[in-house]
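User: My instructor asked us to take a sequence, write out its structure as tokens, and then describe one feature of it. I'm not sure where to start. Here is the sequence I was given:
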Amino acid sequence: MRKTICLLAAVLTLCTACEKGIPDADADVGDQESNVTLRFSPYVTESFATTRGGEGSSKPIQEVCSRLSIAIFNANGSKVVYKTQEKDDEGFGTANLNLAEGTYEVVAIGHNGKGTATITSTEKVTFPSNKMTDTFYYYGTLVVTDEPQEHVIPMTRCVAMFRLNITDPTPEIIKNMKFYYTGGSSTFSPKAGFGCVKSKQTEILEVNSSGVYEVYTMPHATTGTLKMTISALDSEETLLYEKVFEDIPIKVNNITSYTGSFFDGSSGTITANNFGITIDPTWEGTNNYDF
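Assistant: Let's start with the prediction itself. The structure tokens for your sequence are:
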């Protein structure tokens, strides 16, 4: 998403943490008031919100994300501001800046991971331990004039979700489900709006009573495919059951859901062509497969 922002006026307090070596935009201007206010508001599609128990449209950021990172780059490509916020911070989702007149590029990343997203440039964002969660972003151009400015900025989901629905009982000996998958990315290019690295992703999730497990990736284009190896492990991480899914279709802002019996004694490679496909809109849409 790229926009040119002509922002309007407001001054609020912002609690932030600053990246070492990158100044807070307010830090070097003394008591001078901020001249730019950015308010971030993730956009949630109606079908996604219905699944999550709400209505569509933009939602308060604290309802969707627990962490926010904001970076401002000047015309030379240098990062002049870097701010991070957490859900419990006062003013979460609002950035008050004091910037000289000129044209800037803005990158914002909202997610639910355990650590802070690192915004290296407009073309590279990484996440702690390459772990992915539901993630939203904004990329656009900011024009600062001599007038105070304010703007509400909609953020867009940039991940696809894979959901596993296990229909048979999970043996008590199974403690964790391991997901190893390739075809997506855990590094993101805000400028392009897609994943930018061929990642090998691993997620280990504790067994739960619902038998539903969700993992995320960033496609390299609007659509793509994953190869997914799912392993059931005991407390000693011994492999007891395993299935391999080839050519899993994924799409940005969509859920791909595989439903079936996992602990039936069988193991092997399963391709997407072996499944009947139904569509049940959640997020933007859900592709459902039985295995």
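For the description part of your assignment, you could build on this observation: The two ends are 36 Å apart (CA to CA). Try explaining in your own words what that tells you about the chain.
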